[in-house]
Amino acid sequence: MTNAVNDKAVVKDYFNATGFDRWRRIYGDGEVNKVQKDIRIGHQQTIDTVIDWLKSDGNLAELSICDAGCGVGSLSIPLAQAGAKVWASDISEKMVGEAREKAKEVLGEIYNPTFSVQDLESLGGKYHTVVCLDVLIHYPTEDAAKMIGHLASLAENRLILSFAPKTLCLTILKKIGEFFPGPSKTTRAYQHKEADIIKILENNGFTIGRTSMTSTRFYFSRILEAVRN
Ligand code: SAM
Description:
This protein is an alpha/beta fold. It contains eight helices and seven strands. The structure holds S-adenosylmethionine (SAM).
C-alpha cells in the first residue's frame, strides 16, 4: 500500500468518526472551545472570500460548480442559494450526510446542490468552476500535483484552491494535532509551498487570478483563483 492510499484511508475513517464530530461542531454554530472558535471564524472568512469573488463576477446563476471535498456544505449551500448549479462531493459519507441535512434545512427539498460520496480522484464531468477548499492539507506534496491535475481536467474555466501555506508558523499544525486524539486516529497535516502550487496550476494551463490569505491565530489558508489560459 502506498503512503497516499494509506493516508486517504486514514482520512476517510477519521472524517467518518471522531473527525466528523469535531469538524461538524467547528463548522456549525454551537458552543466550541476558543481554538475551535478561532478556526471557525477563519474558515468562514475563507468561504466568504470565495463567495464574494463568485458573486462579484455577476454570472453565478449561469455557473456549474464542483465543490470537491465539500465537508458539511459550508460553501455549496450558500452558492446554491445564490443560484449556481452545484455538484458537491466528499470522501466521508458522514460529512455528506450532514451537508444534505443542512441543505434541506436551508433550502428545502430541492435538487441543488447534488451531493455524492466520492473520493475526488474519482470525480468526472466538466464544470465551469471547480473549487477545493482546505482539502490539500490531507495531501503530501508528491500527491498534490496529481490531485490538482485531476481537478484541473474537470475545470473548463477556473479552479479555486485553498491550502495551508508552508511559510507560515507551525502553530496551525500543532493546533490541528490537538484535534486528533490518539496515534491510531491521527491524520497528518501537510502544508504546501505557494510556488509549488502555482507551478502545478501553470503546468495544467492555468494563470493565477485573484488571491487571498486568511490568517487568524490558529487558522491559515491561502486562496488562489486559477483561470484557464
Ligand atoms: N471544503 C470543506 C470546507 O472548506 O468547508 C471541507 C474542508 S475539511 C478541512 C476537509 C474535507 O476534505 C473533509 O470533509 C474530508 O472528508 C474531505 N476529504 C479529504 N480527502 C478527500 C478526498 N481524497 N476526496 C474527497 N474528499 C476528501
